[in-house]
Amino acid sequence: MSHYCDLAPDHPFHGPYHDQEYGFPVADDDTLFERLVLEINQAGLSWLTVLKKREAFHEAFAGFSVARVAAFDDADRARLLGDAGIIRNRLKVDAAIHNAGVVRALQAEHGSFRAWLDGHHPRPHADWVKLFRRTFRFTGPEIVGEFLMSTGYLPGAHRDDCPVQARILAAGPAWARHPADRPLA
């Protein structure tokens, strides 16, 4: 079975994502939101499709500004559904807008989206899925797992022998600091 570490090197889209972003801890809420939106949009499609459309997503979703997307209205929804540069799936568009509002509420209650994530770490993947399903829209096991791996909350983004893994470990991802052994409260 191939691993992303086998497929990504030297690829024009996968390579930079694999080498510079995938699995590294993320501190910025807008970047966390971007990853969530991109993972939601990957559902049923290839990650390459999403990476190729990433710039268009960035434009369409106001640079993934949580505050701006949370304020999107019906006109914005119609604009997004008419934008051929992104994935025009009504459920995914609605989830992105709704989830931006959820992140705003988490920011108000916890100080940041990252603080909310940190407050729930560590926990096993299955417990994360339950938490995300209670909190967000369009967040099944694969989406949650990839979101958490891509942002450093769950291990598995890279093989141990991948040169990027050493840089991720040096960056101090949450999964390396605290193993997922706490059951859902």
TrEMBL record:
Primary enzyme class: hydrolase
Residues holding Zn(2+): 5, 18
Coiled coil regions in record: none
Organism domain of life: Bacteria
One Pfam family cited in the UniProt record for this chain: Adenine_glyco
Listed GO MF terms: DNA-3-methyladenine glycosylase activity; metal ion binding
UniProt-listed GO biological process terms: base-excision repair
EC number of this enzyme: 3.2.2.20
Stored InterPro entries: Adenine_glyco, DNA-3mA_glycosylase, DNA_glycosylase
SUPFAM superfamilies: DNA-glycosylase (SSF48150)
Record keywords: Glycosidase, Hydrolase, Metal-binding, Zinc
Name by which UniProt lists this protein: DNA-3-methyladenine glycosylase I
Organism listed in the record: Halomonas stenophila
